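hiii so my PI (J.) wants the whole complex modelled not just the main chain, which honestly fair. so below is everything: three entries, each one labled with what it is. i double checked the lines twice but i was tired so who knows lol
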Amino acid sequence: MKNDVIKLSATYTKMIFRSWFQYKVDAILRSLAVFMREATSIIVIYFTLTKFDSINGWNIYEMLLLFSLVYMTYGILIIFFTGLRDFGHTVRDGSFDRYILRPRGLLFQLIFANADWFAAVGHGGLGILLFVISAAKLGVVWTPLRVLYYVFAIIGGVLIQGAIFLFLATLNIYLLETNMLKEVFYWNMRKFSGYPMSIFHKAIQFVMTFIVPFAFVNYFPAQFILRKDDMAAYSEIFMYIAPFVGIVLYMLAYLFWRFSIKYYKSSGN
Amino acid sequence: MSFIEVENVSKTFKVSKRSAGIPGMIANMFVPKFEKKEAVRDISLSIEKGEMVGFIGPNGAGKSTTIKMLSGILCPDNGTINVNGYVPYKQRKDYVAGIGVVFGQKSQLQWDLPVIDSFELLRAIYRIPDDLYKKNLDRFVEMLDMGGFINQPVRQLSLGQRMRSDIVAALLHSPQIVFFDEPTIGVDIIGKETIRKFIKELNEQDDVTMLFTTHDMQDIEQTCKRIIIIDKGKIMYDGSLAEIRSKYGTTRQLIAEMNQDMEVASIKDIIIEKQDNRKYSFTFDNQVVDVNRLMHTILDTYNVKDVTVNEPEIESIIQKMYNGEV
Amino acid sequence: MGLTPYLAFAKKSFLSKSAYRLDHWMGILNTMIRLFIFVEIYKSLYGTREAVDGITMTMVTTNFILSLCLESFFAVDDFYLSSRINNGSIATEMLLPVSFHGRMLATNLGTAVFKLIFHFIPALLLAIFFIGMEAPAGAGNFVLFILSAILGYGVLWSISFMFQMLSFWLINVWAIMTIKNVFINVLSGSMIPLWFMPKWMSGVINFTPFASIYFSPVQIYLGNIGAAEIGMCFVKQIVWILVLMIIGKLLWIKGQKKMVVQGG
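here's the output for the full assembly
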């Protein structure tokens, strides 16, 4: 059984690579485009901080650590959750019916049939690059505890965003069009999570901690090493639970999904 | 209990209603309007193992909704469905492993990849044993004459070739039941012929139960003994094809357009009329004359540009039913 | 032939926009959140300072409100041509007795007018109410701002137009459009006010069409530049539109030939 699942995911992956290599130039251009699009925020923050030096006490390299965590987690995220990110389209064009007609788990199919390995290279590559630069410039000492913490924080960060994708994907079963919801609650939050959360209005901080908890993707994990002054405004516990928030959130999103699949079958969308 | 058992099934959808014009649009932005659409109303039917049933009706009659309920994509609001001992929408994974579904309008093949790659993927998805996969693939490829394009990317195939590939894709795991939703739509006349012959052979040789929807009466005439006519979500007729055929008439008309001006010799049992120098109509009784043979005779004898067969429209049959003529 | 068929295309695209209600309202909320957050970021950057390089916080706020609100209604469908080439409908559409480009522009304008009424105006009013911004430097400035904003849309549209013509040669233009949009985002001033760009960068931007999209109208609105410079802004906008359209048209002619030769 285990073997069989691995075999199928390998077959899916092989097909994705084959499709991509049908158009090599396009594949490379896509990776480049993703890399550049994501680098936009870095360019903006670089120019801004050339003029203003620091933002609420955070210098450019400390900011890069925040950004790098977003990109690294996203690189992994789109290997596993692209099918959920684009689920609205899958429902609208009727392809979801085909998934239902195949004797495999729905989430399993959505995940492995849609992995975006080439964009992952663009995002992940940028993330690793920024992480290495910022850790080197900040002179971070890598103790075993810190390494372990970051491994789990990155997995947790992937799951938090995966849960958001799964939750928004599920909403597609009820609503015709959710692109703007995703724009508001995912892309915007993601864009601004590159800035230290403490500079924002209390309401936005609340959203980023408890509603769309992007703070646990990068802000609190970054504080684990940096311990900037603005951490005083939050409970220390947030730093320690950051790696685990994702697991809880993902389980909640999964329950919502299970429940909604039943609704899909009765509403027909 | 029959192989497929549908009892008193109904299905209603909520659809959003768009008002016309700019004022309607503005009103719509603030207060959406919905209306209920009864897609299927109180349908009951039973189908035995190995039966081949044609499911016909105009657009929006509820054919697709019924197929979707039978294949487990949708669950009914009311009523029960039982297929081969399964409740389709409940025991999904176990149930769908034993069925095949072809949507003529929606390919399940990988667009950028050779046909064979899609088959390989399905082999992994359905856990098809090696020997069965090889046996089925060889057999279907031969029956449908696919050897020439099986290694070509799907995007380069003609519609007929794509449809043949899609049909094979739905059959590789040797399903006991196959649902075809418009399997010949948009396919040229020769391609349709190949597909019909294949479906018929498979039904006879493998005892596969088949249900298919179509607009094309030819599809039904050449494959099914039993038809179900559905309109506005209700079953209008369920019975033998022969019976309804005798009721709505058996006269057919074949129109042939030639590539150049020519005269046509007379054929037994057929009334030939000249419509213009290049266009002739052949009127006949389809219980006396075999359409295919006639078509091949004409194609072989004359330099033909285009052939069409005029059928009594399904809408006109239904209209006749309403008028109590059938 | 007249304008009638184009008006019909514009109206159709206008009406089709109303289909996704929730999406529309979320769009306004989205603009508001982005604005709000940009303002927060700059408040933090400014700290207690009144002005940086002579630019006050309210000027920064005004820049963001105007650029983001304009951005929200400057509708351009980057994939208009490529989607029609990929699904083959280009061949039939070119046979219609209306100009393909005219139809493309009309469709985009229909959407733009919808967004102007139902997105730009509500978002702007909400922004003025909740965040607050500077009034235009004068009535003349206001009129010139509107003119310049319309030309700004022209520049944005022409850039997209030119890049869309690459659809004849590329299977997928997503990557190239994304890269194009990166340049627009960074260099047009909608993500970082161009006042704060390093000197060398401003020099580079001066030679690109990007500042003509949002930044020129904003400068005129704020009265930051004199009559001569305002005139220069208009000249630049018009020249860029012409240059980009001519390049686009040349590519279009070449592309069409290629399409005819290859039969789609």
